[in-house]
Amino acid sequence: MRALMGECKFNNCQHINEPKCATSQVLSSTTTAWRTADCDGDGVTNYDEATGTMVIH
User: Fold this and answer.
1) DSSP 2
2) How far apart are CA 44 and CA 51, in angstroms?
3) What is the pLDDT of residues 7-24, one digit of tens each?
4) What is the pTM of this model?
5) In terms of residue numbers, what domain contains 42?
6) Is residue 56 part of a domain?
């Protein structure tokens, strides 16, 4: 995902809802199961890692 961040239309993209955001476009095509999974076992979901969002539970 980090590699896609440079593909966004605007250089100040927050990768949330901006138009032409490459990261958001890829994330929108992922499954809920992938987004909520923690593939590397660090306690942070794949979605939170991909978007840089850290949700404290």
Assistant:
1) G
2) 11
3) 666 677 666 666 777 777
4) 0.55
5) 2-51
6) no
